[in-house]
Specification:
The structure holds 2 protein chains of 2 kinds. Chain A is built from 12 helices and 13 strands. By secondary structure, chain A is an alpha/beta fold. Chain B has 9 helices and 11 strands. In chain B, about 55% of the residues are buried. Classes of the chains: A alpha/beta, B alpha/beta. At the A-B interface, α1, β1, α2, α3 and α9 of A face α2, α5, α7, α8 and β10 of B. Bound molecules: iron/sulfur cluster (2 copies).
């Protein structure tokens, strides 16, 4: 392929440059050149100029809490919360044992049961045995509604290529009953831990596939998000990377991470969160979880899943879906 | 019946769903280049919008924090012509993640090292987008100016050497850039600079500003009309979640800063209402699903 300049490029370029250097004391108003003062005066007349009191009410209306009829579960003093199983039944098994050992009264899953890993149906009996209370992730939403893709929100063709492989595999290997059951899961839950009411979502309270990364979920944003969501704490997943932020208001935001694949840090363990009621504050512990990752890798190979995925399980580094990472998370990534 | 009621061409109005992305026209319309496709017609002599000062940016950052803004973008003109640019980034990175759109010409090694230090000192991401309009001199320089290809590559190299990995932004003025083969050519170019994990964003062209002279302005049918846009489609437009601050107030979006009509108010609180999508550029946004975010 070669670059084909428009035929009259030279003439156009000459004219454009002549116009652009003709800006002294002139302004561009749409396609026209006008005296600078004319533009400035027009701009000064446009737009609203609310009185101070009205500005204050506009901000208050914008940040006001929204009604949410979701019933409140609990209260509990200790719960385990995890996200993104990605068909990793070996990690799920380990998690259920670990959570029981640590005295969790309830176990919550924030969605994305399938993708990436092998034999999605193996997750189902474990969820039932462990009495796991789940919400839908974008994966369940897509599978249950018969969508053509997983709605992961990727734009890079390579990421999409691999997302498609895993979606098709999971799609093929899930029974219609399992898919239908996924569709019955709620979109969000509200759970009381001690005195605090926590909102459990997949991506964010606003969108099932919104990414809450540590470096792009700033404190002022989270404060307003929690005001609008009327909760004392927010638990989410979807990014695959775990973190915890205690806000100046004393509320907590936790990305519980995923148990389906490691956290792109060169370590093979996965992560989940233990949340407990304490006197002064919410107890938040992000828990590293080791599991039979060699067994998972072997099973993935026998299912002929991409070697790129197996590599992630074996090395702890992501090889796909890197495009979604913000600059800071990307900088510490190997690929 | 008033004229407004019988006109069949009334534009749909887009509501602000949430103010997630706040843009700053931090370099004004002043640029050290005068690209033929620049949709804000920036040039060394264009003072339609002046640069923003640190004090002005701070005032908006305070208001933005109250409204829970998620991320900040800086553009111009060329942001690094602004003598306070690094201080502005430092102030911004205290409250949220920042992305700078630059032409890459002012990225000397010293500045890149300072930017890397700013990035490391913050909890939040600092990201860069460098514009390039071709994979060699012959394709890039007619658009961005003689000798710019080499200078842009030098800027990209300096960022990379400092440990910063910019997104390279290419507009569709570069023919074939959006295809897989075109993308691969850019990836190959970046890898040849030693960038192992190249990042690329392809943007469609807005036929406004200097670009209107280059490729011809919009046709009259290229307008959005009430009722022709499906429900929910407006939620994907960036103006449903962004605003743009210039030295003259707050505009609806980064695209229409040269239209006084698109100015919405003086403070962010003035601009939380809806906006009529009357401009033909809105047609491009809708049809091509444009977002100026990374
Ligand atoms: S496209 Fe960017 S670099 Fe080129 S003139 Fe416009 S602002 Fe300057
Ligand atoms: S140009 Fe695009 S972003 Fe700006 S108001 Fe129109 S549709 Fe919205």
């Amino acid at each position: 392929m070669s670059f084909r300049p428009p035929k009259d490029l030279d003439e156009q370029a000459r004219q454009a440059r002549a116009k652009l250097t003709a800006h002294r004391d002139m302004a561009t108003w749409g396609e026209k050149l006008v005296p600078l003062a004319a533009f400035r005066q027009a701009a000064a007349r446009k737009g609203l100029k609310l009185a101070q009191g009205d500005r204050e009410s506009a901000v208050l209306a914008y940040t006001a809490g929204l009604d949410d009829p979701t019933p409140v579960e609990g209260p509990y003093s200790r719960i385990a919360v995890f996200g993104g199983i990605y068909s990793n039944h070996l990690a799920l098994l380990e998690l259920l044992e670990d959570a029981a050992r640590r005295g969790a009264e309830a176990v919550y899953c924030l969605g994305d049961l399938g993708a990436f890993g092998p034999n999605p149906e193996k997750v189902r009996p474990l969820m039932a045995q462990g009495q796991v209370l789940s919400i839908q992730g974008n994966y369940e939403e897509s599978l249950a509604s018969g969508r053509e893709d997983c709605n992961c929100g990727y734009t890079d063709p390579r990421d999409n290529h691999f997302a498609e492989i895993s979606y098709r595999y999971t799609e093929r290997n899930c029974s219609p009953e399992f898919k239908a059951w996924m569709g019955t899961l709620p979109r969000r839950r509200r759970v009381r831990v001690g005195e605090r009411e926590l909102l459990l979502v997949h991506g964010s309270p606003r969108r099932i596939n919104e990414f809450l990364f540590h470096s792009t979920a700033p404190v002022p944003f989270l404060e307003v998000l929690l005001d609008q969501s009327r909760c004392d704490g927010l638990l989410a997943t979807h990014t695959g990377l775990h973190w915890h932020r205690r806000l100046p208001s004393g509320r907590d935001v936790v990305n519980v991470g995923v148990i389906g694949r490691p956290a792109n840090d060169g370590r093979t363990n996965v992560w989940y969160a233990m949340i407990e009621a304490r006197e002064e504050e919410l107890g938040v512990e992000l828990v590293p979880l080791a599991y039979d990752h060699l067994g998972l890798a072997a099973e993935m190979r026998s299912e002929k899943l991409p070697e790129e995925f197996v590599e992630t399980v074996l090395t702890g580094w992501w090889t796909t879906c890197l495009e979604i990472l913000p600059a800071r998370e990307r900088a510490v990534s190997r690929f | 019946m008033s004229l407004a009621e019988i006109t069949p061409l009334s534009a749909p109005r887009v509501e602000l769903k949430s103010l997630d992305t706040l843009w700053f026209q931090v370099g004004g319309t002043v640029c050290n280049l005068a690209c033929t496709h620049c949709f804000v017609s920036c040039s060394p002599t264009n003072h339609t919008h002046e640069m923003l000062s640190l004090a002005e940016v701070r005032r908006y950052l305070e208001e933005a924090a109250r409204l829970g803004v998620r991320e900040y973008y800086f553009t111009g003109g060329e942001p690094f012509l602004n003598p306070e640019m690094e201080a502005i980034l430092a102030a911004t990175l205290e409250v949220g993640p920042a992305t700078v759109l630059t032409n890459g010409l002012l990225l000397d090694p010293g500045r890149c090292a300072r930017l890397k230090a700013l990035a490391d000192a913050s909890d939040y991401s600092l990201d860069f987008r460098v514009s390039l309009d071709g994979w060699d001199e012959a394709s890039n320089d007619p658009i961005r100016g003689a000798g710019t290809f080499e200078k842009i590559l030098a800027g990209i190299r300096n960022l990379h050497a400092a440990g910063l990995n910019p997104v390279i932004t290419v507009t569709e003025v570069c023919e074939g850039a959006a295809g897989d083969e075109g993308k691969e050519r850019f990836f190959a170019l970046l890898r040849s600079l030693g960038i192992e994990r190249p990042r690329l964003k392809i943007l469609p062209v807005f036929r406004i500003g200097a670009e209107a002279g280059r490729s011809g302005a919009y046709e009259s049918w290229q307008r959005l009309r009430e009722g022709e846009v499906p429900d929910g489609a407006l939620d994907h437009l960036q103006c449903s979640s962004c605003r743009m601050v210039t030295d003259q107030g707050v505009w609806v979006c980064p695209i229409l800063v040269n239209e006084p009509e698109a100015k919405m108010g003086e403070t962010l609180a003035d601009t939380l209402g809806d906006f009529p999508l009357e401009h033909p550029a809105c047609w491009t946004c809708h049809v091509y699903g444009v977002s100026c975010r990374t």
